[in-house]
Design a protein that fits this description.
Length: about 130
């Protein structure tokens, strides 16, 4: 994912901050930490607003293929119950939505945490 966005030099930092989850022999990053990076922020904001987001879902996704594409985050969120679908899927494309208020609150807390961090940075210079 870092390579896709030209951030290869940040690998060690991202690993130190967000890695540590294990499924079998595979190391997995927390989906919330990946989305906090801003890569999918607008789509998550749309979901919180009650909108649907059309995404390709790979139900056959295995842990050793998770890092093949940033878009696999949607399959992970769907398969773990953080998202559900609306209507009838068209092939592998699903209209995803937040299933209930509990999960919506989780999304909101994540967005608000990121927003507060961004606001706190206003006026700071690197």
């Amino acid at each position: 994912m870092l390579e896709y966005y030209g951030l290869e030099k940040k690998y060690e930092t991202v690993r130190d901050w967000y890695d540590g989850y294990r499924f079998g022999n595979i190391s997995v990053y927390c989906p919330w930490d990946v989305t906090d990076s801003g890569l999918t922020k607008s789509e998550i904001e749309a979901l919180v607003a009650g909108e649907n987001v059309a995404k390709e879902i790979h139900e056959e996704l295995t842990y050793n293929r998770l890092y093949d594409s940033i878009d696999h985050i949607w399959s992970v969120l769907f398969m773990t119950g953080y998202l559900t679908y609306s209507g009838k899927p068209e092939g592998k494309t699903y209209l995803l939505k937040i299933p209930n208020m509990e999960i919506r609150n989780i999304f909101l807390e994540q967005i608000m945490t990121q927003f507060k961090a961004d606001v706190a940075k206003d006026g700071e210079y690197p």
